[in-house]
Amino acid sequence: MKEPRRYLLGLEPLFEGGWPHKGNRARDWNVEKELVAVSIFGDVTIDLTNVKSLPSDIEIHAYAIGRDVDVIVPAGTHVEMSGRAHNDHLNNGAPSVPMAEGTRSVKITGHTFIGDVTTRDSISAV
What is the DSSP annotation of 17-74? Predict the structure, then answer.
């Protein structure tokens, strides 16, 4: 059976929680092992700090077209970032954490075109 996957879309100005509607973003949610984030002229923020359940290994496919995909990880998370960036806009701002047994791992494959894919931990996000 195929693992569940969640799609996160940022489509400004129609669906982003800014203009024309002030929406609330999800706070408590169950995170799947695979996430796909697509920002088309609207930002996508994936906050993995305040969740109901979080797998030990997460794979994120991020596509930033015209805007940004931001990933906030819990402190002490091992982050691997790869992909293809237009003008070098893949930025891993999370502190380096060595991969050891029991360490949570987030693997991000990012692709950008006039947008950014960034990662930071919960401590530096404040």
Answer: SSSS--PPPP-S-BPPSEEEEEEEBS-EEEE-SS-SB--SEEEEEEEEESSEEEEEE-
pLDDT at position 5, please? 85
For residue 17, the model assigns a pLDDT of 47
Q: Are 78 and 126 in contact (CB under 8 A)?
A: no
Residue 96 DSSP one-character state: P
CA angle 10, 11, 14 (to 5 degrees): 130
The answer to whether residue 40 is domain-embedded is: yes
**105 in a domain, yes or no?**
yes
Quote the DSSP letter at residue 103.
-
User: Has residue 126 been placed in a domain?
Assistant: no
Q: How many domains does the chain have?
A: 1
What's the first-to-final CA gap in the chain, in angstroms?
A: 39
Contact 112, 68 (CB under 8 A): no
Query: Do the Cβ atoms of 40 and 65 come closer than 8 Å?
Result: yes
**pLDDT over 60 (residue 23):** no
Q: Give the pLDDT of residue 123.
A: 82
Tokens of 83: 């992909």
